Amino acid sequence: MEEDNVWDEGIHKIPDLLPPKKNTVERVLMKYGSMRKHFLEVEREEEYSKMASDGTLIEHCFLIQEQADQMFTDLSDKLMEQNGVTEELKHEDWLEWLQRTNNVYSQADEIVQHDIVFS
Q1: Which of 39, 68, 81, 104 would disulfide-bridge 32, Cβ 3.0–4.6 Å?
Q2: Which of 76, 74, 68 is nearest to 114 (CA)?
Q3: Taking Cα atoms as reference points, which of 56, 58, 57, 76 lies closest to residue 68?
Q4: CB 74 within 8 A of CB 108
Q5: Do residues 69 and 41 lie in contact, with contact meaning Cβ atoms separated by under 8 Å?
Q6: How big, in percent rounded to 5, are the helix, strand and coil portions of the chain?
Q7: Rounded to the nearest 5°, which phi and psi values hold at 83?
Q8: CA-CA distance, 113 to 119, in Å (whole number)?
Q9: Which DSSP symbol is given to 6?
Q10: Would you say residue 32 has pLDDT above 70?
Q11: What would the DSSP string read from start to end of 48-100?
Q12: Residue 18's pLDDT is what?
């Protein structure tokens, strides 16, 4: 019987020391967050250790992930426009469109990694 965070075990009442369960969605580190964590672990061991012991490492990686994802989206949009990657091109010459799109994504990814993830 569980009531008011206390387990009733016959004559003994045992407090439930676990934190209350939250109805939250579990977040997962994706590409840029994982890359940042690995970078800190390998290249900046002291900073990694401090953040890990402070309990701020994962939140930091999520913040980097959000910033990097936003920068990637913004850069991709800008580069698509600059390189003439349009729906019209997609319908006219889809192989050219695919090549340009892949080039844009590669450029944006390289810039994001340099400016945010590995800085």
Answers
A1: 68
A2: 68
A3: 76
A4: no
A5: no
A6: 65, 10, 25
A7: -95, 10
A8: 8
A9: E
A10: yes
A11: HHHHHHHT-HHHHHHHHHHHHHHHHHHHHHHHHHHTT--HHHHHH-HHHHHHH
A12: 66
Report the alpha-carbon distance of residue 84 to residue 119 in Å, rounded.
30
Question: What is the C-alpha separation between 25 and 65, in angstroms, rounded?
Answer: 17
Residue in the block written with tokens 């439930």? 16
Inter-residue contact 36 to 42 (CB < 8 Å):
no
Q: For residue 1, what is the enclosing H or E element?
A: none
Section 45-74 average pLDDT: 97
User: Would you say 67 and 31 are in contact if contact means Cβ atoms under 8 Å apart?
Assistant: no
Among candidate residues 21, 3, 22, the one with its CA nearest the CA of residue 13: 3
What is the predicted pLDDT for the residue at 2? 46
CA 108, CA 77: separation in Å to the nearest integer? 10
Task: State the pairing for strand pair 2-3/6-9.
Answer: antiparallel
- Phi/psi at 103 (5° precision): -65, -45
